[in-house]
Amino acid sequence: MRVLAFEDSVDIEALLISGGADLSDVIFKQYWDSENHLERISEFVPDVLMLDHYMPPTKGLDVLKNLLKSSLQKPQTIIAMSSASMANNAMVAAGADIGIVKFEIATLKLWATHS
């Protein structure tokens, strides 16, 4: 499973590992900003896309909207993972599959069922 995260302040892979998520079959990549986000998504072709809302220069909600209106293939799962529930709710309303507070992402069943 290929996982791409856009998050500017928290090491998401470390957060997942410390939370007990099974990443043994995961290829993980994190960008610490959202510059050239469509190009980065296109190059990596993630199965799972994780988006923080408050991230420079383009907010996660706008990254999501740009992706969904582009010709790029939508990842199987898009996770809104802001620390603000309202931001996650806005991303789910715009087309994200899951909205969760970022510090709880290791609890998602996704990490146990990818093999």
How would you explain this protein's 3D organization?
Helix content is 30%, strand content 17%. The protein has 115 residues and is an alpha/beta fold. It has a five-stranded parallel sheet with strand order 2-1-3-4-5. α3 (60-69) packs parallel to α4 (85-94). The longest helix is centred in the middle third of the chain and has 10 residues, at 60-69. The chain starts with a strand and ends in a 16-residue tail after the last strand. The model has no long low-confidence stretch (mean pLDDT 94).
Outline:
It is built from four helices and five strands, in the order E-H-E-H-E-H-E-H-E.
What is the global morphology? Answer: globular
- Write down the overall mean pLDDT: 94
Per DSSP, the total helix count is: 4
Strand count: 5
Could you give the distance between the termini? 8 Å
Strand count, sense and barrel status of the largest sheet are: 5 strands, parallel
**Percent range of helical residues:** 25-40%
Low-confidence region ranges: none
What proportion strand? 15-25%
Please tag this protein with its features.
alpha/beta; about 120 residues; five-stranded parallel sheet; single chain; 4 helices
Structural topology:
Layout: E1 2-6, H1 12-18, E2 27-31, H2 37-44, E3 48-51, H3 60-69, E4 77-80, H4 85-94, E5 98-99
Parallel strand pairs: 1-2, 1-3, 3-4, 4-5
